[in-house]
Design brief:
337 residues; 19 strands; 3 domains; Jelly Rolls; alpha+beta; globular
Amino acid sequence: MNQNNKRLNENLLLYFEGKLNEKEIKEVEEWIEISEENRLISQYIKDLYKSTDTLYALSKIDVNKALKSIHSKMKIRRDRYSWSTIRKIAAIILIPLLIGSAAGYFMQKSVPVNLIHLITNPGMTASITLPDGTFVTLNSNSMLIYPDRFAGNERRVELKGEAYFKVKSNKEHPFIIKTPQKAFIKVHGTQFNLEAYPADDEVSATLITGHISMAFLNKKNTWKEYMILPGQEISYSRSDKSIKIKRPITDVVTSWKDGKLIFNNTPFREVLKNLSKRFNVEFKIKNTRLLNSAYTGILQHQRLDRVLEYFKISSNIHFRYINDMNIENEKQIIQVY
């Protein structure tokens, strides 16, 4: 794309935001009138701001706060006016005639596709049936990005967080999941759990039935693909570009989707990680010797205070709520000693 086209694309965005001077407005309007194709392109740009469709699967959401956050991100990203950042804002209509780099991503010819963001509030879960019949349960504090229709030879979605997938089988159109760790899960039809929180170094996929494979960059910076069997879990480390295969207790890994927390000789570090996701809290370990412990049990529909009381009684572990003066920290901090 040459500089003139790049400047014109940026001015089209600014035109519908009302941020151009008279000379620039005239230039854009003259360009729109040149051809029917230009008019359609300008209409797609206009739809970009009219058709934003973000879904919040929440029962208790501060809508005003969420909208304020989105608008804040939009303001920051619009300053750059790059297509790669614009399509990350809320749910975006992709514009095939303008976005060459995204030509293979949820597109078909010149018909725009709506990207929908399903976001779960901390402590909440949500379920959704995708356009192809795939059923997804989304864990706490997670985001699933998917199109309102699948176009092309692949069914692509993106996960930031944790989800349980029941993928509708379609061998001619594989189901592909992008993760923040730059690893991809390839599926034909199966059930599996995928944990890929942006802040975590590792992404882990636990296969229940069927077959999946993970594509990743190895230490030689070349793409590799590894398939696992039912009952196996594959984990990829973003930092050292390595994978690990193990056989976890699948009921423990997937118990969250049924509203439970199942521990089976589970290390205390993993216990706290699961409690953090469920109750949207942050644990600070004062006594690191506690991390050597492991626990077995089932928690279901229990308040956090009651759960912590169980640990106090059974293992003499103490917890203390800490007042955090940082108002931007949305998590309650709990010290463990």
